[in-house]
Specification:
Length: about 525
């Protein structure tokens, strides 16, 4: 018996449809051709994201790689431009324990740069190539030691980079985006803002250059483009937005960084961050990264800061700043309450330096500087920037809050560049006296007369007290309370009682430790 294969329903329908279509075509006189139809592909009409191609094309010729050579150490993947954080010469471990960046590392288990696992530190401690080269008296050839980024700011060859990229260099090579290598000379550098200026001989060419933006118009959320030399790759472009402004990362008194989330990595140091008009809004100088790579938190020196510093470096090869010569700290609400200030603003003078312009003018410890030349001071960082901007020998009027009232004194500023070296040497900490201890139960501290007869040594602190919560430790010395010198526990009691009568809820303790001085506001209870 034969097996007869029956056509499927699909085949019958297709055959019927095609035959019918062919019959229609023949009846109408149209040649019979079978055309198979397909569904249209999916397309979506949507707003297009901005392209950065025009910006990149215009600015790329102005951005360069900076190679640094010296005769001090062998290059490795530990070069100075391959940073996790640059703190103007200070290690990460020197930040206060309560600093937000240090807390972040502890909470997420990251390796703190400069800590036990830091490769540069380990190498130095082991007496590696760095130490041997430094102390060896034999001549050494120039060797690569750092690699970063930079950008031209004039057609005659001036370019900007970071101080920490070039600080240890003896020779500098600039690599253009087309691969051309040019020798450069160091014009000047400024460690306080981490900026440096190099100069390339422009006798045979004119360079494409970029300008600084008005960064006061930069808003959080604005698009930015970073161009630089990450990991030595050269000519790399990344994009992101401005994440925050006015960031203080603990690198110095002039911190005012722009935070961006564009991918910035090791080797981007000194490279520019552009707005969509091709203007430099910031200079990349530091990243925050537990891993050493990009995690979307980068910091750039604002254009307004860079512009002034760069102009000074080109003109004089250095930056001169006004100098008041006082150690200061922020005024928090506790300190404001203890001093009778309406607002927690200004800068609290911890101690004037011996022979400084501030001391000569009559500024005293415990004063709060509230304004300079009539311009209100927001905090300690604001004061440092404003004084520096006036320059040496400037005459300014300083408004103070002293003993519950306002005073104004004239001050002739000094020169930070030269005068800071004349500051008094720090005093050695005083050892606590083992006898004559008196308990101040309300404050949670125990004190005894200091050995030198000046102030009171803290011999014990209740770990559950407000004093302990605010960082007071055994071994420190209480110098004054509410700007009144204290020699014994009774003196502290008298000052606190007077503060209660004046309606204050806190007393301001001046504390010395390790040659440094600070103020701590402690609550004073009734009765």
């Amino acid at each position: 018996m034969r097996n007869i294969e029956r056509p499927s329903l699909k085949t019958v329908l297709q055959t019927t449809t095609v035959a019918g279509l062919a019959a229609v075509m023949l009846a109408s006189g149209i040649p019979a051709q079978i055309v198979q139809s397909y569904a249209a592909p999916v397309t979506v009409t949507a707003p297009q994201a901005p392209s950065f191609a025009d910006v990149v094309s215009a600015v790329s010729p102005a951005v360069v790689s900076v190679r640094v050579q010296s005769n001090t150490q062998v290059a490795s993947d530990d070069d100075d431009s391959n940073f996790t954080f640059n703190f103007g010469g200070r290690g990460f471990d020197q930040l206060p324990d309560d600093h937000p960046l240090k807390r972040f590392f502890r909470e997420f288990g990251g390796q703190m740069p400069g800590g036990p696992g830091d490769r540069n530190q380990d190498r130095a401690e082991r007496g590696g190539p760095r130490d041997r080269d430094r102390h060896d008296n034999r001549p050494h050839p120039l060797r690569p030691t750092a690699q970063g980024s930079g950008f031209f700011i004039s057609e005659d060859g001036y370019l900007v980079t970071n101080n920490h990229v070039v600080s240890d260099g003896s020779a500098y090579t600039v690599v253009m985006n087309d691969g051309t290598e040019l020798e450069a000379k160091l014009v000047g550098k400024d460690s306080r803002t981490d900026l440096a200026v190099l100069k390339v001989d422009a006798s045979s060419r004119k360079f494409t250059y970029v300008t600084f933006a008005d960064d006061t118009k930069v808003r959080v959320g604005d698009w930015v483009v970073a161009v630089g030399n990450p990991f030595g790759l050269g000519g790399t472009v990344t994009a992101g937005i401005v994440s925050a402004r006015g960031r203080d990362i603990g690198s110095g008194p002039y911190d005012d960084y722009i935070q961006v989330d564009a991918a910035v990595n090791r080797g981007n140091s000194g490279g520019p961050t552009f707005n969509l008009s091709g203007e430099v809004v910031g200079i990349n100088t530091a990243i925050f990264s537990p891993s050493g790579g990009n995690v979307g938190i980068a910091f750039a020196i604002p254009a307004s800061v860079a512009k002034d510093v760069v102009n000074d470096l080109i003109k004089d090869g250095k930056v001169e700043r006004g100098w008041l010569g006082v150690q200061i700290q922020p005024v928090n609400q506790d300190i404001a309450d203890s001093l009778g200030l309406k607002e927690a603003s200004g800068a609290l003078v911890v101690a004037p330096q011996e022979g400084s312009p501030g001391q000569k003018a009559g500024i005293k410890e415990g004063d709060v500087i509230t304004a300079v030349n009539g311009q209100p001071i927001k905090d300690a960082r604001d004061l440092a920037k404003r004084v520096a901007a006036f320059g040496p020998n400037a005459k300014v009027d300083v408004d103070l809050w002293r003993d519950g009232k306002k005073e104004t004194i004239p001050v002739t500023l000094g020169n930070l560049q030269s005068d800071e070296a004349a500051a008094a040497e720090p005093k050695q900490p005083d050892a606590p006296a083992p006898s004559s201890e008196k308990a101040l139960a309300d404050l949670g501290i125990t004190v005894a007369p200091a050995e030198d007869g000046s102030g009171l040594s803290v011999t014990d602190v209740d770990p559950d007290s407000e004093a302990a919560a605010r960082g007071l430790k055994a071994g420190e010395k209480i110098v004054s309370v509410n700007n009144r010198k204290v020699e014994n526990a009774a003196d502290i009691g008298k000052v606190i009682e007077q503060a209660r009568k004046d309606g204050r809820t806190r007393a301001l303790f001046q504390v010395e430790s390790g040659g440094n001085s600070r103020f701590v506001a402690l609550p004073i209870n009734e009765g």
